[in-house]
Amino acid sequence: MATMKLVLILMMTTIVAVWARDPELTTDFAVPVGMNASLINGDFFTFTGLRNFSAAPNTFGSKKVTHVEFPALTGLGVGVTLLEYKPNTLNPPHTHARGSELIFVMAGHLDVGLIDSANKLYSAHLHEGDLFVFPQGLVHFQINMSKEKSVLAISAFGSSNAGTISMPRNIFGSGIEDEVLLQAFKITSAELMKLKAPFTPTM
């Protein structure tokens, strides 16, 4: 089973790479500014930051690996995020502006969904070993409905820095004028304050 998981992860990373949106390299790989290329060895192409990752209790947690955390990814059109969903936790609706996402469930069951530009919802209940793709730029989410078991998954991206725009945080925590939100969501000022509260910095 472990070998099958590894093969699937490598396959999905390769598939996502085909649709990469990053600028094309004109060299074998990108050498960081200030680094002597002759001194590069296998360590440059190795990332160990996912070892022993675990989300905080009662939360959804993730550890992203972009070109920022792993410079060897620069220009290669791939990125990865390790995801853990503690029981009854959610990765809220969000988008990735610069790359599609391919998620692979390594342990547990995960409910996922995406919404297209015609406002149609596509949802699925994923089991261990299942894959689901979220096309670039479309709003999507994942939720662990289990009250007892955590879910572990890994996502591959068609960009070395796909970016994440979280709908709740970006809408209610970005400083958009209240009048805009009141009219857009047809809510009262009191309701708006409740929605903004989790994203308002505390003094």
TrEMBL record:
Binding positions (oxalate): N91, H96, E101
Which positions make up the signal peptide? 1-20
Instruction: Please list the coiled coil stretches.
Output: none
| Residue sites binding Mn(2+) per the record | H94, H96, E101, H140
What the entry lists under SMART domains is as follows: Cupin_1
- Chain ranges of the Cupin type-1 domain: 51-193
GO CC annotation terms, alphabetical:
apoplast
Task: Give the molecular function GO annotations.
Answer: manganese ion binding
Indicate where this protein resides in the cell.
Secreted, Extracellular space, Apoplast
**Which InterPro entries does this UniProt record tie to the protein?**
Cupin_1 (IPR006045), Germin (IPR001929), RmlC-like_jellyroll (IPR014710), RmlC_Cupin_sf (IPR011051)
Q: Which UniProt keywords apply?
A: Apoplast, Manganese, Metal-binding, Secreted, Signal
* Gene3D superfamilies xref list: Jelly Rolls
**Family membership noted in the UniProt record:** Belongs to the germin family.
Its name, as the record gives it, is Germin-like protein
Q: Which organism is it from?
A: Marchantia polymorpha
